[in-house]
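Thread amino acids onto this structure.
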């Protein structure tokens, strides 16, 4: 399993935030303009994580439900109190949380509740996947030897 810390995956990576009062339309435009599929919703007073809103949320909870994107705030459709991970936890742990929870994005949050980034299931397609498959190969070789 990939053992690299979550912080190593997200360091120097841009992520989007918004406040819960912003309209769905403004948030969707912000996501489009930054080519991002997820935005973290934070409290305006202290920046602590309140929720997460993804392209999937916009599709299913807004479009499919027929909500007005101009008058509906993102706080009404976000996933409140999402699962999070500490920056020092291994990426493999994050993948397990995402798999078990059935979601594709996991906020990385400091102990004080402020987010510092977002992990994506897509991150597993990079270098971590190569390491994972190398470990599997090594275990297979050891199994054959023993």
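Threaded sequence (146 positions):
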């Amino acid at each position: 399993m990939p053992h690299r810390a979550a912080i190593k995956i997200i360091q120097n990576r841009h992520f989007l935030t918004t406040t819960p009062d912003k309209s769905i339309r403004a948030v969707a435009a912000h996501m489009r303009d930054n080519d991002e599929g997820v935005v973290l919703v934070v409290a305006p007073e202290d920046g602590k994580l309140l929720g997460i809103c993804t392209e999937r949320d916009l599709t299913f909870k807004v479009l499919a439900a027929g909500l007005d994107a101009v008058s509906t705030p993102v706080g009404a459709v976000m996933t409140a109190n999402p699962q999070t991970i500490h920056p020092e936890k291994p990426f493999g742990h994050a993948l397990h949380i995402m798999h078990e929870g059935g979601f594709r994005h996991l906020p990385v949050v400091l102990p004080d509740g402020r987010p510092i980034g977002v992990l994506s299931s897509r991150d597993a397609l990079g270098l971590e996947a190569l390491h994972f498959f190398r470990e599997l190969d090594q275990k297979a070789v050891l199994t054959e030897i023993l």
